[in-house]
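Final paragraph of the annual report: two paired records, presented back to back.
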Amino acid sequence: MKNTLLLTASLLLAITSSAQEDAKSKAIVDRLMTQAKTWTSFEADFSSRLLNAKDKLDVKQEGNMKVKGKKFRLVLDKNTIINDGTTIHTYSSETNEVTLSDPAEMDQELDPSRLFTQYEKGFKSQFVEEKADAAGVMTQVVKLFPLDAAKKAYHTVVLTVDKAKGEPRSVQVLYKDGNVVTYNLKKFTANPPLADPLFVFDKAKYPGVEVNDMR
């Protein structure tokens, strides 16, 4: 009888702890989403890393993203991607080519303007830990699991958030094919003044550019 009571108490404690963790993770995610909805614009310097142990992949890149509403300008090494709201311009400085595509055909999960808000719905969350990152910033780590997992190419998203500011520090996506993509935000600025010309591809600035219209 004593052992049964102890077992029951342990199970209740585990269930209670799990519920507390879920509530904590939800509060962290809700805070991030609430903040993200107030950002009419944001800018971030970031590093990205693609790892796949099986395929021996380890690709590192440095980048900058500027987002204003639905428009964005993403610079990643030798590539610049500009969405002016009507057309996406993907420019390669290596080949001096620009490809035009329809924003409606873009993978919404890769849209910088939805980098954080896309995780608001359709996920269950789990609190992982609080820890200081490499820069000494106290962070909160949360795992997100898609509810409709069959329709996603990934199975887990790990969000790391600045505990004091509620702002993102990193996003890690674990794909079913073994790829692990991590975005570390080295500098994040909410609501910076971003001029509209930043989100326009000015062909005159790229003499001899070859245009590939895929629309």
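The closing record of the year follows.
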Amino acid sequence: MIIRKDYKFYAAHRNEELADKCRNLHGHRYGVVCCFEVERDGAISTLFGDFDAQIEPFLKREYDHALLINRYDSLYETMQEHTRRTGEQMKLKVFDRPTSVENLAHQLFTEITDMGFRLNRLEIRETDTSVVEYTRADWVNDNRLFSTQRQALAT
């Protein structure tokens, strides 16, 4: 059985590898649709609140009104220097790769799976007209790809 839950958060990011408008720092109201696989073991399989109790506070704490930033983006070093110089703490959600919506989907799929939930699919709405649908198969393939990339960098 699939249980679907919808969430949202606001965050800024940039796609530093692109040569278009998205290279500039900008924000989105991200919509997140989680499709959970659950086993029915009685009249009620899972309470919707069980998902909300973990995922909503997690998204608020880690993502909402944060700057999503690639640790290898030159802007990350600038942000760290700003904090050292002024003492001002900025809410940063640090990624190990560019903060594209595809990489955001991988990151969220991993973090939600690490909470003990079994995701079947995750949808990330970046704008009113742009949605990425990310499946368990995509996640498995990306994990294989990223592991291969890490091994290549280590040699």
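The CA atoms of residues 83 and 90 lie 7 Å apart. This concludes the annual technical report; the extension proposal builds directly on these records.
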